[in-house]
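Notebook B, p. 112. Complex prediction, attempt 2.
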Amino acid sequence: MVNLPPQTTRSKNKQAGLNPHATTYLVKLTENNQIYESTLVQRVSPPTSVSELMQRVEAIAGTTLGELAAQFQFKSPEDLLKEKGWPGQLIEHVLGASAGSKPVPDFEQIGVELKTLPISYQGKPLETTYVSIVPLTELTGLTWQQSSVKKKLSHVLWLPILAERDIAPVDRTIGTGFLWQPSFEQEAQLRRDWEEQIELIALGRIQEISGHLGEVMQIRPKAANSKVLTDAIGPDGGLIKTLPRGFYLKTQFTQSILLDHFSN
DNA sequence: TATTGATCATAC
DNA sequence: GTATGATCAATA
């Protein structure tokens, strides 16, 4: 695969009605020196300020995922049976989030984490919100302040998407995104759930943990399938193999975030 | 029908 | 396997 120099510039993108923050590249897939496919890809520059990010967020409010996908030559799956992460990946791309699976905020320069939030016709969250992997070993001395949950949720850009299952992914409408930081009480709730469940894990009682625990944040499996195993502390203090877990925000919690924001 | 447990794509 | 992005689907 050959990555050629930019074929269109920022200004040309503007003329063509494309996103002025995006630079378009022509990528040619070659084999035996023969070009068998050419495709345009775009790279959107990371926002350099919160206000720049929010301008982009406002610009996509009211559009559909399909419209954005077409505009950015992004694939559009017919359903999300596979590619479950498509909405988030598309929005990341459009807003200029740093790509990859690095353990840093989506908008690294400004320390903001992006979370798409599927909502119903009534505006209620349809799914829990994944936060981060749950550490299962080497927990001694780990504090809430150091936790990935605390870091991830310190500054979040919530982007509601009308995502009822009877709406095709491409026809799902993007709502009004907004920034959020946990209130004192919200952080206290998160901290209690984190400490209570991490404590159980540290005590070797991970097998007692299910999605039922946690007032606003639960622990559930987070793996390719139920056969994936990782190390955890066992009942006798030694290491055992168990399913990898993740922290998820319960829908009532994210709903309260929406209500706090949109009812004022 | 709300919730918990299971799963899918991708990058490394 | 770990970690990113999440939603699907069986169960209670």
